[in-house]
UniProtKB/TrEMBL annotation:
Residues 224-322 form the HTH araC/xylS-type domain. This is AraC-like DNA-binding protein. It comes from Marinisporobacter balticus. GO terms for molecular function: DNA-binding transcription factor activity; sequence-specific DNA binding. Keywords: DNA-binding, Transcription, Transcription regulation. It holds the Pfam family HTH_18. It comes from the Bacteria. InterPro entries: Homeodomain-like_sf (IPR009057), HTH_AraC (IPR018060), HTH_AraC-typ_CS (IPR018062), PchR_regulatory_protein (IPR053142).
Length: 329
């Protein structure tokens, strides 16, 4: 696969090779294992057809400042299994792809940046060019008049991106392309990819427009900054109304944008963050349950215990009993 498909964050001057710790070749598949200084997980890829790459990502980022750049001229198809991907759209707009979402775009005229706001991503990509897609279609359907132009026109009609959410037919096709254990898995992938292209250019599926689905980049950056400050001072419980007043942003705008970025409401996210922080303290610090509660912003120990039970499935006392660190640990 062309390494230019996954460039480094220019600010950090990281190369593709910097993030790879080990490469394996198994049954015509290339498996990239990442350097744990940057991320955990792996990427599996293979060339399904000349110039058509199937890529499976299972990533957990250790560093939040990794922003791979896409390169011009590629048709890219993405299906998110879990996690969340932030895609930078035109005119400083940003939109999000979450579990069950499917996106097709033509990367042209500029470099497109993406990142993973939840720190993890599991998904499937298919990467090719107009020329290689045309060669594929002529090989599979020798007498066809179908060309890549039909797909590109669909993308243009949808204002640069075809977007589908939780479509069962798409889900089945994408997962069979990469996860099949069939003896003829590569041949089956070719058939499923042809089926996918026919489905995309047909009139059987309605795609939704990005209008109303994207957010201004400056607003996104402000919400991320607020999230960093709130989580860095988790012992202070901050309400949305207080955030709105302090950061000069409407409560509704903040709430909507926060949920778009982090998939959860602000209050659900903070509740989970506080409990996860508390679990770390219970494992590593010799503090009472009440002291731990205060450290993560709960003034009422019983409310803290209930929140902990909701998230972790056990009480703080039971968690500490089963998870305390020992000298041997």
């Amino acid at each position: 696969m062309n390494k230019q498909l996954f460039l480094a964050d220019t600010q950090n001057q990281l190369s593709f090779d910097d993030m790879i710790e080990k490469i394996e070749n198994i049954d015509n598949r290339i498996i990239y294992h990442y350097n744990k200084n940057y991320m955990y997980g792996k990427t599996i890829q293979y060339e399904m057809f000349k110039g058509i790459w199937i890529v499976y990502h299972d990533l957990a980022l250790k560093r939040s400042d990794l922003f791979p750049l896409e390169v011009n001229g590629f048709i890219q198809i993405n299906y998110c299994i879990s996690g969340r991907c932030e895609l930078h759209y035109k005119n400083n707009k940003v939109f999000y792809v979450g579990a069950g979402d499917f996106v097709v775009g033509l990367l042209k005229n500029k470099q497109y940046k993406h990142s993973f706001p939840l720190g993890n991503y599991n998904g499937i990509s298919i990467i090719t060019t107009e020329e290689k897609l045309d060669n594929f279609l002529k090989t599979i359907f020798p007498e066809t008049k179908i060309t890549s132009k039909k797909l590109l026109l669909k993308i243009e009609e949808c204002d640069e991106y075809i977007v589908l959410s939780n479509n069962l037919e798409i889900k089945n096709i994408m997962e069979e392309i990469i996860l099949s254990n069939h003896d003829f898995w590569k041949e089956k992938a070719v058939i499923k990819f042809a089926e996918l292209i026919l489905l995309l250019i047909s009139n059987d599926i309605e795609f939704y427009q990005l209008t109303g689905k994207y957010y201004d980049k400056q607003l996104i950056n402000k919400v991320k900054q607020i999230k960093q400050e709130v989580t860095a001072n988790i012992e202070v419980y901050t309400k949305i109304e207080e955030i709105a007043q302090k950061y000069h942003i409407s409560s509704k705008t903040f709430a909507d944008c926060f949920k778009a970025v982090y998939r959860k409401t602000y209050y659900a996210f903070i509740k989970e963050f506080r409990v996860k922080k508390a679990s770390e303290l219970l494992r590593s610090e010799n503090l009472t349950i009440g002291e731990v509660a205060i450290r993560v912003g709960y003034l009422n120990a019983s409310k803290f215990s209930k929140a902990f039970l909701d998230i972790m499935g056990v009480t703080p006392i039971c968690f500490r009993k089963n998870n305390s660190l020992t000298v041997l640990d």
